[in-house]
Amino acid sequence: MKWIRISLPEPVPSKALIKLEVTGKKICLGHYAGKWMAIADRCTHNGASLSQGRLTAFGEVVCPLHGYRFRLMDGRCSEACEDAEVFPIKEENGEIFIAV
Ligand code: FES
């Protein structure tokens, strides 16, 4: 596992989902419960970009296409659908790193 430092847009929008591409992987980054979390930016139902959806007050990413929900902390899907891949995040000295 390799940690890669990522840069966030300034200022970071609150409750926004951020689309990133890290070593060719599309990532949906969100901030919930005081922490950054990352899941694959691809809905397992039909491939929509989850970063184009919205983040609920319960830490779920709602797909913009059909509304399936994915828990940001572990990628668990609310429907009978494959869970989203999750990526570890760590914060050190004000910088954010992702493992892909
Ligand atoms: S493509 Fe995401 S719910 Fe259908």
Q: Could you characterize the architecture of this molecule?
A:
The chain is mostly beta strands and 100 residues long. The chain has one domain (3-99): Rieske Iron-sulfur Protein (3-layer Sandwich), CATH 2.102.10. Helix content is 0%, strand content 43%. It has strands spanning 3-6, 17-22, 25-32, 35-40, 54-55, 60-62, 69-71, 86-87, 89-92, 95-99. The strands form three sheets. A four-stranded antiparallel β-sheet has the order 2-3-4-8, with no helix packed on it. A hairpin with a 2-residue loop joins strand 9 and strand 10. The chain is globular and about 40 Å long. The model has no long low-confidence stretch (mean pLDDT 93). The protein binds FE2/S2 (inorganic) cluster (FES). FE2/S2 (inorganic) cluster is lined by residues 43, 45-46, 48, 63, 65-66, 68.
The CATH topology name reads: Rieske Iron-sulfur Protein
Helix content: under 10%
Mean pLDDT value: 93
CATH class: Mainly Beta
CATH architecture: 3-layer Sandwich
- Could you say how many structural domains there are in total? 1
What is the 3D shape? globular
Number of helices: 0
Strand content: 35-45%
Strand order of the largest sheet: 2-3-4-8
- In whole angstroms, the N-to-C terminal distance is 7 Å
**Any idea what the CATH superfamily is called?**
Rieske [2Fe-2S] iron-sulphur domain
* E-strand count: 10
Helix vs. strand class: mainly beta
For the report, how would you describe the main beta sheet?
4 strands, antiparallel
Could you state the order of secondary-structure elements as H and E?
EEEEEEEEEE
